[in-house]
């Protein structure tokens, strides 16, 4: 099993034709990206600011991930079945509580 860092993969953007775009609303923000004019809604602008604020935070513990990768590849990784079962039971309990 190969574990890749999905955050480092580039996302390809497609260019839409400008004649197919709806007219911008007064509350939308205009920006220029790579020579293209882009219109952002207030929600998109808010999401961008949240993303920028969280960009400096580490999403995961890289050392722990590397240790797990190493243990898996060397065949030394052990799964605690009791811990997995307890987590599964707790998840089911939470799901049943939420549905009521």
UniProtKB/TrEMBL annotation:
Record region (Disordered): 12-35
Residues covered by the Anti-sigma-28 factor FlgM C-terminal domain: 37-90
Coiled coil: none
Alphabetic keyword roster: Bacterial flagellum biogenesis, Cell projection, Cilium, Flagellum, Repressor, Transcription, Transcription regulation
Pfam families: FlgM
Function text: Responsible for the coupling of flagellin expression to flagellar assembly by preventing expression of the flagellin genes when a component of the middle class of proteins is defective. It negatively regulates flagellar genes by inhibiting the activity of FliA by directly binding to FliA.
Sequence similarity: Belongs to the FlgM family.
Annotated protein name in UniProt: Negative regulator of flagellin synthesis
Organism per entry: Methylobacillus methanolivorans
Organism placement in taxonomy: Bacteria, Pseudomonadati, Pseudomonadota, Betaproteobacteria, Nitrosomonadales
Name of encoding gene: flgM
């Amino acid at each position: 099993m190969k574990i890749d860092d999905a955050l480092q993969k580039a996302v390809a953007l497609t260019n839409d034709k400008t004649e197919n775009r709806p007219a911008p609303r007064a509350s939308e923000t205009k920006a220029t990206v790579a020579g293209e004019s882009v219109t952002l809604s207030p929600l998109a602008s808010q999401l961008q600011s949240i993303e920028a604020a969280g960009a400096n935070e580490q999403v995961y513990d890289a050392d722990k991930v590397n240790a797990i990768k190493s243990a898996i590849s060397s065949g030394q990784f052990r799964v605690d079945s009791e811990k997995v079962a307890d987590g599964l039971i707790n998840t089911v309990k939470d799901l049943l509580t939420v549905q009521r």
